[in-house]
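Narrative of accomplishments. A recurring question from our advisory board has been how the design workflow behaves on a single, concrete structure rather than in aggregate. To address it, we present the structure tokens for one chain from the evaluation set, followed by the sequence designed for it. No filtering or post-editing was applied between the two.
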């Protein structure tokens, strides 16, 4: 739906394109029972931040017109409001903590292309389906015409209705699963592959868990809001794509249904939801990724917004075999030796779980190297002893 705000002389002040269905869903969740009024408040808040103000009479007019569109079910009607004024955009005071340095909001900022992260991305085995989906996700976000071209090429020149379902979904993914299974490694390194695919720069912002604040009422909400707005501003200024990563997402996005949850944490979850919705409606080049070991702990409203949820599991026998081949090519290990390492890193009578990716790459193989250095070469025997002596990470038990 298109909303146009004109001044009294009918000069266009602002033209805004909004996904009306998504707006009403957000308004319903945020305003509990009065989505029309909620939608009006959301739209006006966005206009005020862009320097456009509406009088109380025009606010009522906007609300009425939103109600008419909602009743008709036809968001192609559009809304014109005449009499808007230029105002000073909302300024955030230091007390709001919205003028913070990026280093205070984000644990890490990574720019791509990046050789180091490309190597990490290429080393992640068994994740090809997730990798392929991520690349397509960003291509569709940054180049929507690519999807339309595919539709017309493959469907006799038509843009099929199914394309709209892809265009309307949220640019938000959740990586859930056991510890050490590659969730964060993939989320942090995929920017390199995306940069190659779209031939543009990509920037990743890793949201700091410090956005939980220091316990001051309202602080976490303000910090989360500041982080999302900082990413949105960066995305609008960059020519490529932007990734917002929240690792250990359950620390901020824990279900509001939890009885023991503090009201400040509930407010923080609301701020996350609002940030996701804002980016979905206003910015088409931001991909949001949440990583968590406790998928069931994530608030249902957050999970509902995800375009997809990927479950990461411990490597299978075949994937563990690929890991040993990939990281130990110079040793020319025999097939039976690799099979033995695969067996030792699988389930056993005393252990009902296999090694994770990080158990093999960050523990087992380094342990074998340390035991061999400086007097001996790295051998199968050293790897075998390391496999027998390394304690794998136990699965994360939800609840």
């Amino acid at each position: 739906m298109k909303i146009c705000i004109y001044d009294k002389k009918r000069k266009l002040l602002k033209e805004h394109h909004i996904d009306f269905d998504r707006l009403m869903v957000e308004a319903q969740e945020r305003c509990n029972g009065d989505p029309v009024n909620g939608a009006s408040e959301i739209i006006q808040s966005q206009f005020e931040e862009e320097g456009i103000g509406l009088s109380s009479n025009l606010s009522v007019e906007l609300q009425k017109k939103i109600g008419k569109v909602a009743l008709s079910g036809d968001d192609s009607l559009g809304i014109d409001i005449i009499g808007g004024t230029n105002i000073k955009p909302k300024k955030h005071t230091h007390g709001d903590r919205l003028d913070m340095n990026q280093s205070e909001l984000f644990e890490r900022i990574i720019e791509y292309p990046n050789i180091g992260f490309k190597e990490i991305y290429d080393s992640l085995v068994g994740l090809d389906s997730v990798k392929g989906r991520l690349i397509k996700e960003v291509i569709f976000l940054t180049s929507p015409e690519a999807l339309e071209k595919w539709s017309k090429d493959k469907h006799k020149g038509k843009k099929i209705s199914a394309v709209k379902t892809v265009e309307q979904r949220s640019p938000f993914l959740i990586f859930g699963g056991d510890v050490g299974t590659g969730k964060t490694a993939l989320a942090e390194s995929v920017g390199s592959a995306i940069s190659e695919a779209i031939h543009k720069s990509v920037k990743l912002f890793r949201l700091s868990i410090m956005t939980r604040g220091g316990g001051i009422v309202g602080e976490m909400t303000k910090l989360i809001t500041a982080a999302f707005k900082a990413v949105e501003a960066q995305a609008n200024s960059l020519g490529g794509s932007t990734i917002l990563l929240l690792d250990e997402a359950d620390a901020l996005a824990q279900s509001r249904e939890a009885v023991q949850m503090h009201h400040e944490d509930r407010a923080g979850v609301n701020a996350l939801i609002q940030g996701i919705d804002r980016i979905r409606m206003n910015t088409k080049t931001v991909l949001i990724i949440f990583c968590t070991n406790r998928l069931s702990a994530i608030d249902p409203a957050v999970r509902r917004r995800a375009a997809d949820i990927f479950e990461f599991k411990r490597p299978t026998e075949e994937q563990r075999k690929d890991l040993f081949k990939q990281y130990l090519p110079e040793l020319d290990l025999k097939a039976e030796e690799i099979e033995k390492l695969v067996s030792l890193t699988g389930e056993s009578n005393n252990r009902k779980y296999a090694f994770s990716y990080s158990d093999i790459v960050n523990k087992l193989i380094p342990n074998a190297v340390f035991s061999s250095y400086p007097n001996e070469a790295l051998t199968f025997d050293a790897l075998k002893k390391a496999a027998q002596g390394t304690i794998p990470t136990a699965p994360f038990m939800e609840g």
